[in-house]
Amino acid sequence: MLEVSELTKSYHKVRGVKDLSFQVESGTAFGFLGPNGAGKTTTIRLLMGFMKPDLGSARIWGLDCWQDRAELKRIISYLPGELHFMEQFTGQEFLDLIKGMHGAHETIRKNQIDLLRILELDPSQGIRKMSKGMKQKLGIIAALMLDSPVLILDEPTSGLDPLMRKTFIELILEEKKRGKTIFMSSHHFSEIERTCERVGIIRDGELLAIQDIALLKQKERQTFDIEVGGEEDAEFLRQSDLTLYPLDHHKFTIQVEGEQELLWKTLAQIQVKRFQQGSLELEEAFMHYYHSSLRGDGT
What we know:
Blueprint: E1 2-11, E2 14-24, E3 29-33, H1 40-47, E4 55-60, E5 63-64, H2 69-72, E6 76-79, H3 91-101, H4 106-118, H5 132-144, E7 150-154, H6 162-177, E8 181-186, H7 189-195, E9 198-203, E10 206-212, H8 213-219, E11 221-228, H9 231-239, E12 243-246, E13 251-257, H10 261-267, E14 272-279, H11 282-295
Parallel strand pairs: 3-8, 3-9, 6-7, 7-8
Antiparallel strand pairs: 1-2, 1-4, 4-5, 9-10, 11-13, 11-14, 12-13
């Protein structure tokens, strides 16, 4: 388990993070969402033992992230948000160095070969000549090939094209099947939605809300674009209790949250010429939850 309790860190009177508390159960994935500068990287550096907190604590598998930081490196694979390589190396030389630092086990070698194939990276090329996307792939391979039980990933898809982002998500889902505990920061809600059981949002160094993805999906709102047969049908819709957004004279967008019984009962009483179903992004459901929690209305 990963446990953070009242974690606080400031930089020369400038707040880094303040009073963070959350837990990540073993074998689950936690998404850490927020804009640039929100405190995501500071939190990860505290988890990695790169900095001593001013107040509070963070523990992984019962080990204190600051006091036991050397021992923690044996169970954590880390992908930093800003990658810095020894540019004179080839990709293969860098991977061999990482492999040697972790015992050069056969499992690591096999994982490396598989990941190079999956991510379509030629490791013989010099790092200096690699694009940002290629360097990101190299960092992902270096982290995942170690088969560590805990993964801490800071903006892992930065620089990847959409196809490779999809491939990365598939890799993370495979890691989850193998029981890994994953803490992943991102500003892309879609990859958090697909890979994590829980998500927290941080802004200006403070944790605003934490919610289960499954519960968010229950709050997910759906939209329906509809064109009705005439003015009488349009007026019937306007008089209903549905949430309507007029598009044209006889065209509307209907928004439904939760049960859809009222929608279908209403549509059964009118002539429908065109009907198309869509769905709002889960990110909107999350922000709806967040704003509701601020208002205290529980909706």
